[in-house]
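R.M. (postdoc): so does anyone remember the format we settled on? I'll just put the structure tokens first.
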């Protein structure tokens, strides 16, 4: 399993969120809180599931709460991905 960089995770998140919102990726700020992006809880769960499929590992149910922006979540995902790749 290859590690994901923070930049890769940011790009992935921004593209997925933009698609869900029906906007251009340039309209999704990496520093806006997820709850300000008009994503309801169902969409957040779907996004988390898609993330797990993309990353190849399960996320905690509180991951998006503890890392509430694209920037914060991408940094966490890169760190977690690197740790898991090193352990594999």
């Amino acid at each position: 399993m290859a590690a994901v960089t923070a930049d890769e995770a940011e790009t992935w998140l921004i593209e997925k969120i933009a698609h869900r919102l029906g906007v251009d990726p340039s309209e999704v700020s990496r520093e806006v809180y997820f709850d300000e992006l008009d994503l309801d809880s169902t969409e957040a769960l779907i996004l988390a599931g898609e993330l797990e499929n993309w990353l190849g590992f399960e996320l905690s149910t509180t991951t998006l709460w503890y890392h509430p922006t694209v920037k914060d979540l991408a940094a966490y995902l890169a760190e977690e991905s690197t740790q898991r790749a090193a352990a594999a």
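R.M.: ...and that's the designed sequence above, right after the tokens. Also worth knowing: DSSP finds four helices and no strands in the chain. The longest helix spans residues 70-87.
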